[in-house]
Amino acid sequence: MASLRAAGMRPILAASKRIAAPSTLRQTLAVSSSRMVSSYYQGEAQGPVVKTDIPGPKSQEAITKLDTVFDTRSLNMLADYTKSFGNYIVDPDGNTLLDVYAQIASIPVGYNNPALVKAAQSPEMVNSIINRPALGNFPSHDWASVLETGILKVAPKGLNQVFTAMAGSDANETAYKAAFMWRRQKERGGPAVEFTEEEMESAMNNQSPGASQLSILSFKTGFHGRLFGSLSTTRSKPIHKLDIPAFDWPQATFPQLKYPLEEHVEENAKAEADALAEVEHLIKNWHLPPAAVIVEPIQSEGGDNHASPAFFRGLREVTQKHGVLMIVDEVQTGVGATGKFWAHDHWDLPTPPDMVTFSKKAQTAGYYFGNPELRPNKPYRQFNTWMGDPARAILFRAIIEEIERHNLVENTAKVGDYLFGKIEELAKKYPQDFQNLRGKGQGTFIAFDNPKRDQFLAKAKKFGVNIGGSGAHAVRLRPMLIFEKSHADILLEAMEKIVTSW
Amino acid sequence: MASLRAAGMRPILAASKRIAAPSTLRQTLAVSSSRMVSSYYQGEAQGPVVKTDIPGPKSQEAITKLDTVFDTRSLNMLADYTKSFGNYIVDPDGNTLLDVYAQIASIPVGYNNPALVKAAQSPEMVNSIINRPALGNFPSHDWASVLETGILKVAPKGLNQVFTAMAGSDANETAYKAAFMWRRQKERGGPAVEFTEEEMESAMNNQSPGASQLSILSFKTGFHGRLFGSLSTTRSKPIHKLDIPAFDWPQATFPQLKYPLEEHVEENAKAEADALAEVEHLIKNWHLPPAAVIVEPIQSEGGDNHASPAFFRGLREVTQKHGVLMIVDEVQTGVGATGKFWAHDHWDLPTPPDMVTFSKKAQTAGYYFGNPELRPNKPYRQFNTWMGDPARAILFRAIIEEIERHNLVENTAKVGDYLFGKIEELAKKYPQDFQNLRGKGQGTFIAFDNPKRDQFLAKAKKFGVNIGGSGAHAVRLRPMLIFEKSHADILLEAMEKIVTSW
């Protein structure tokens, strides 16, 4: 990896292949021609422009208006998406920020990407928007083709089927439902065994045996969504969970690695072995046996917590040993940001996970699976009216094409290595402000801890960068896949300014 | 109402105001000019065309292909949405069916409605598709305006705020979350009282007091979704619930009315009084006290079960008396089909429900509320990455405009009365086949029971109509809002053919 950095970053695209901003955007972006920052985005801003405090007067006025009908207390900044372009988010006061938060890691190929404009204007997209089908009952004649040329083209190895959903939470919850149905079917003796009268009656009363006494095992500091089943597996922060009834499901400790990794090899290996032992103990002993274990490749809301490929291989082994399914939650890590299309591609698993869930950068959601037994034994068991959104599936297909056309996964790997190396240098210079740097070799999915994290994030805006946090202390970097060395330099400069300004 | 029918139905629109099919569609629809069936849709098919068995050979081929990657066992029919228009759904074999199922009641203003085509092609829509925001953090500068000119313009009386979601299940579940947070806040002594350490710690372990020991009360045979919290309140069929862990939440009997209503006045009044008494008993005695009661105006999946306005006024009274919230689930009944924009407009409630949830015909989802205390006391408690989809909110705005432009709610009221009267006549002629006719004065939201229901639905396709069922025996009619007297006549003719064909 070091050799790539030594060789210097080169634009992946020739200038002639650059993406041109639509003319309406070019007028608003006040582009000068002296330096081309993006090798993809012709007409992208050359750097941040901060004209006012954020929120500025125009934003404040709009926020006040919005708050009368919509809770704005979690508002970070107001955006004008008609003016945002590429890596830059623009607000109503004309502030132009380099966006390395990207709608909580949900923008893959840049604001107003012209290829996506084209896809959104296509007759196929228009048709999907206005004739939304109940997919389980009335799929369109070309739904197989939309899946095969899009979502399934990037299916993780070994998983050739998909259940489409709406967002991360229901992607995970439908995967849980599949796990529970699979497990009970196995216990019952196979798909041909009919439900008993007792099961059918008790299910209607939310009682066992019809409502199963099973669980999903998740990890402490993990995040898997905020609906009732997914929230029962989310263990990030009290504010996410307070007052909401929850299932009595088990949680295992996620290994808490110490950094730099090379200085804590034995300690970290022990932390991972202990965590696996705890998983095995819970599988064997929890009063509601786990049908599945769900895990994020990198705990993305809970503080950017990493574990080694060996840990995940161990988890695959433990789950297989005990007939428990392994669900990999790639809602935030999926679609290229870690330098692989799926973060679990880094693990070199002997056998694939049983299910992989996705959302965010896919702009649609669902879960992949391979085992035909994960299709429930009868229809209408895994079903809902919409079962996803073909319009969003069509958009994901265009995103995949854009990623392939520009080798954007390779790009994040390279730019991530560059960025990581430069933050390592910052960490040497300012050790207090760049603690526990993590994400080496994980593309641009990089984080570090800062003791004054919330101030750090607030200050970042003054220096022209939109950055997010995770957990209590982490600064999490979530650039888009079109983030290049030149953007990294702007980010690095801004981060150094932040920590030297206090 | 009788006078309207006596006066005869007149097209609401002059011919000059008719919606013209796009030229591409006009070519494929094989329209003759002899009779104009739709007064809105110029170029709509004049009637069903059944060319093959359904599925025909082309459909079968596509279904086989689709099944390799997507579970097709719940497939009803494959559709070609590029060729479907107005009230008619077209399949790949060229069969053209009058669609009174309408994607499980989710198509409001017709397939390929030209006004929606225009909205879908607008720069605003394109922008929303490709720049999807994390709405809670980074709303667009004009989000207030999108809400106010769309979703909020049709807000139920007394409810001026909205939380946007993705589909019916999470619309209900986020409403439940709001109810739990509201109830615990009241118990705690108001929004300013901080969470205790014990609450915060126990919440992380899914234990009380942090995870509340509260419930949502729902009704037997009700349907509120299929994720873990919503499924715990769904009581429609075992197949929806089997094997899935559930909360031990209470259910009250939904009054089982006898038809014709005028012959069972006292009996039905007693059934409703008993149901209300049961609700009150459960509120006072269930071991997990209900924070809210959720109810559908018409139980739409569980068999098209109706109750009187007096029952719902009684429910409002009981819930208010005990400080329990009343959530009206208008996911299927909302947006015009009952002859009012919201079905609960029929009830003449003394005070509005606390929350009203919506989805389906709105093409987006969420819940309305009025009480500012239903905004949790801190940000990030009711939050997720996307919090709905602005593209779908923009589409809903266009749907609302179309409904207003053509007085479509008035249309469903009138056409519904006509249709109901005609089915009453059929019921006199064929009493075995049109039992328990219900939905009088409820627009086109009409149902009846048929002892061979599944055969009835299968045969309907042979006679050119796509109809759905609900519960075990009900034939449920869910035409679009653009369904007119002429379409009703086609439906009536087909239904008579079905029951005289066996």
TrEMBL record, chains A, B:
Gene3D superfamilies per UniProt: Aspartate Aminotransferase, domain 1 (3.90.1150.10), Type I PLP-dependent aspartate aminotransferase-like (Major domain) (3.40.640.10)
EC number: 2.6.1.19
Domain of life assignment: Eukaryota
Cofactor names: pyridoxal 5'-phosphate
Catalytic activity: 4-aminobutanoate + 2-oxoglutarate = succinate semialdehyde + L-glutamate
InterPro entries, per the entry: 4NH2But_aminotransferase_euk (IPR004631), Aminotrans_3 (IPR005814), Aminotrans_3_PPA_site (IPR049704), PyrdxlP-dep_Trfase (IPR015424), PyrdxlP-dep_Trfase_major (IPR015421), PyrdxlP-dep_Trfase_small (IPR015422)
One Pfam family hit: Aminotran_3
Keywords assigned: Aminotransferase, Pyridoxal phosphate, Transferase
GO cellular component: mitochondrion
GO BP of this protein: gamma-aminobutyric acid catabolic process
Molecular-function GO terms, alphabetical: 4-aminobutyrate:2-oxoglutarate transaminase activity; pyridoxal phosphate binding
PROSITE patterns: AA_TRANSFER_CLASS_3
Keyword set includes Nucleotide-binding: no
Family classification: Belongs to the class-III pyridoxal-phosphate-dependent aminotransferase family.
PANTHER family: 4-AMINOBUTYRATE AMINOTRANSFERASE, MITOCHONDRIAL, AMINOTRANSFERASE
Protein name per Swiss-Prot or TrEMBL: 4-aminobutyrate aminotransferase
Source organism of this protein record: Pestalotiopsis fici (strain W106-1 / CGMCC3.15140)
